[in-house]
Design brief:
This protein has about 220 residues and is an alpha/beta fold. The protein is about 40% helix and about 20% strand. The chain has eight helices and twelve strands. It has two domains: about 120 residues, Response regulator (Rossmann fold, 3-Layer(aba) Sandwich), CATH 3.40.50; about 100 residues, Winged helix-like DNA-binding domain superfamily/Winged helix DNA-binding domain (Arc Repressor Mutant, subunit A, Orthogonal Bundle).
C-alpha cells in the first residue's frame, strides 16, 4: 500500500514516514500543500495523511482541490488545530478523518488500517485465499500453517495482489502502489519480485498462486 504524507515539519514527516515504512507501507512525503496536491493528482495513492498549516497552500485548499479532481482516496487530516469548527471544516472539505497533534502513532496506524480496510472492502484484518493468509495488522503471511518470511516490498506486492484477488493488476498499477515516486518504470524489478514471491509461496507439486496474464500483468485467483 502506498501512502502520501503532506507535512511541512521535517522531523515529524520523517517520524511518520519511518513508522509507516516499518509496517511495510510505501511512503512518499511532500512538504507543502502545492506539492502535496500535485503528488496526489499525478500518482495513485491508497491513502493521504494531510497537515493543515502548510506553506504555499494550506491543507483545506489542498483537500478541496483533490476532491474537486474526483480523487477518492481516504484523507486523514493531522493537525494542531483542535477546535470543533476546524474538524467540521476538514470533514466538509472532503477529509475522511481528523486527528489532532500531539497524537499517538498507534492511533494513527489504527486509523490508517481501518480506512484501508473500508477502501478495499475487507472486513477483518486477515485476507485469506485457500491456504494463504495475510494479516494486515501483524503484517505477516502464513501458508498452510507456516509463517513465510517476506521483505517489505514482497509483503506490499503480495498484499496488493490479494486485495485485488480475481482481478488482473498491470505492472503500472503495481508500480504505483508498491514503489515510491523514484521507481524506474523501465526496469524489470516487478517481474523479478514476482518470481521471488513465487519461490517462497509455491512448491513444484501444487498449482500456482500467482498467475501471469500475458501482455497484461498478474492475478491471484480465489
Amino acid at each position: 500500500m502506498r501512502i502520501l504524507v503532506v507535512e511541512d515539519e521535517k522531523r515529524l514527516a520523517d517520524f511518520i514516514k519511518k513508522g509507516l515504512e516499518e509496517q511495510h507501507y510505501i511512503v512518499d512525503v511532500a512538504y507543502n500543500g502545492k506539492d502535496g496536491e500535485y503528488y496526489a493528482l499525478t500518482n495513485d495513492y491508497d491513502l493521504l495523511v494531510l497537515d493543515i498549516l502548510l506553506p504555499k497552500q494550506d491543507g483545506w485548499i489542498t483537500c478541496k482541490n483533490i476532491r474537486k479532481a474526483n480523487v477518492d482516496i481516504p484523507i486523514i487530516m493531522l493537525t494542531a488545530l483542535d477546535d470543533v469548527s476546524d474538524r467540521i471544516k476538514g470533514l466538509d472539505y472532503g477529509a475522511d478523518d481528523y486527528i489532532t497533534k500531539p497524537f499517538e502513532f498507534d492511533e494513527l496506524l489504527a486509523r490508517v488500517r481501518a480506512h484501508l480496510r473500508r477502501r478495499y472492502n475487507f472486513s477483518s484484518r486477515t485476507i485469506k485465499i485457500d491456504g494463504l493468509q495475510l494479516d494486515t495488522h501483524e503484517r505477516k503471511v502464513i501458508k498452510d500453517g507456516e509463517i513465510i518470511e517476506l521483505t517489505n516490498k514482497e509483503f506490499a506486492l503480495l498484499e496488493y495482489l490479494m486485495i485485488n484477488k480475481n482481478y488482473v493488476v498491470t505492472r503500472t498499477m503495481i508500480a504505483e502502489h508498491v514503489w515510491d515516486i523514484h521507481f524506474d518504470t523501465g526496469s524489470n524489478v516487478i517481474d523479478v519480485m514476482v518470481n521471488y514471491l513465487r519461490k517462497k509461496l509455491e512448491s513444484d507439486k501444487e498449482k500456482p498462486i500467482i498467475h501471469t496474464v500475458r501482455g497484461m500483468g498478474y492475478i491471484i485467483k480465489d
